[in-house]
Automatic annotation (TrEMBL):
Its main location: nucleus. It holds the Pfam family WHD_E2F_TDP. The lineage of its organism: Eukaryota, Viridiplantae, Streptophyta, Embryophyta, Tracheophyta. Residues 98-119, 229-265, 303-331 are annotated as: Disordered. This is E2F transcription factor-like E2FF. It comes from Morella rubra (Chinese bayberry). GO terms for cellular component: RNA polymerase II transcription regulator complex.
DNA sequence: TACTCCCGCCAGAGG
DNA sequence: CCTCTGGCGGGAGTA
């Protein structure tokens, strides 16, 4: 690993708040930062420092965003900005892509090494599971008529060994990561399953935003569920994958647009308010930086200072050789 | 308690 | 060997 890690529990500012460091916020900041301005090239290390996060996190965001077509990997450490306009295209492709069948099917686990749908030719034979999982997750919505999905169900439905509970747990963690960034983009939204009361996610789709605010619903009619992947030729098997100890019944048709979305101006996703409108409008303003990020991204000074500070801290506790991080940071 | 999901270790790929 | 990637899951933060 290259960059400095640190920010161990004991060094975190007492004001530390986990939520401020969520992938969703990082994603929002990232999009605002590169969103407009003809910034064509994105350097990961540069982005990491500008956004005040460790490099590792950039890989998460970048891999998810690439699945949506917003950016494209150019090479080591560099990505190019494609734009939000690519989203509809990317989604359409996912919708139609005829992989080893999208998620939802039970048949595709090649024993031994569970193998996720890989086609998605996008680019080289890169098996980034997060990318694959992201695509599969999206396809779950686009190629079926479900209105909302429980991540646990999604994990079971998506490619992989759904027998291995540990693997499932890990997959669910990843889905949370993905859901976070998509929620921040308002591509999906969190809700609760009417009957089970359990947390679930609903697909909102991407709506092109026209200058004057009028949006052009792209693949979703406000509060009109059905219509989702309904006519996609190849969605064939979408249901199945049911059962599950606790709540069998799994996804499929949970319908009932409880929280009729749209209308509202801001939605709360995990307590974080997302401004529906001014999203990525223009000018990288309103960026929400993490706890130790610079206050104003244009001032590299602040960043440098921060970095220096961080380095110091690192040195300070250098000799210690912390076998295990996650110490405490009790309450 | 149940749900979230950040954090960073570390293996593997690339150069 | 070094740097870049990113799988992975422990366990802390939240609701």
């Amino acid at each position: 690993m290259s960059s400095f890690h640190l920010q161990k529990a004991e060094t975190r500012p007492s004001s530390y708040q986990r939520k401020e460091k969520s992938l969703g916020i990082l994603c929002s900041n990232f999009l605002k930062l590169y969103g407009e301005e003809g910034v064509g090239t994105i350097e990961l290390d540069d982005a990491a420092s500008k956004l005040g996060v460790e490099r590792r996190r950039m890989y998460d965001v970048v891999n998810i965003l690439e699945s949506i077509g917003i950016i494209e990997r150019k090479g080591k450490n560099t990505y190019s900005w494609k734009g939000f306009g690519e989203i509809p295209r990317a989604l359409e492709e996912l919708k139609v892509s005829n992989d080893n069948d999208n998620g939802a099917s039970s048949s595709l686990q090649t024993n031994g090494k569970n193998y996720p749908l890989e086609s998605l030719r996008t680019d080289n034979r890169r098996d980034k599971s997060l990318s694959i999982l992201t695509r599969s997750f999206i396809k779950l919505f686009l190629c079926s008529d479900v209105d909302m999905i429980l991540l646990d169900d999604a994990a079971k439905a998506l490619p992989g060994d759904n027998q291995d509970t540990t693997a499932l747990r890990t997959k669910v963690r990843r889905l949370y990561d993905i859901a976070n960034v998509f929620s921040s983009m308002r591509l999906i939204e969190k809700t609760y399953c009417p009957e089970s009361r359990k947390p679930a996610f609903r697909w909102l789709g991407w709506k092109a935003e026209t200058e004057n605010g009028s949006d052009t619903a792209m693949d979703l009619n406000p509060s009109r569920k059905r219509l989702f992947g309904t006519d996609i030729t190849n969605h064939s098997s979408k249901s199945n994958k049911v059962d599950s100890s606790t709540n069998r019944k799994s996804n499929q048709k949970v319908i009932e647009p409880i929280h009729k979305r749209d209308g509202g101006s801001e939605v709360v996703h995990d307590g974080i308010k997302v401004d529906q409108h001014s999203r990525y409008s223009s000018k990288p303003r309103g960026i929400v930086f993490g706890p130790f990020a610079p206050v104003n991204m244009s001032s590299l000074k602040a960043q440098e200072a921060e970095r220096k500070r961080v380095t110091e801290v690192q040195e300070t506790l250098g000799s210690g050789s912390p076998p295990h991080y996650h110490d405490s940071q009790r309450r």
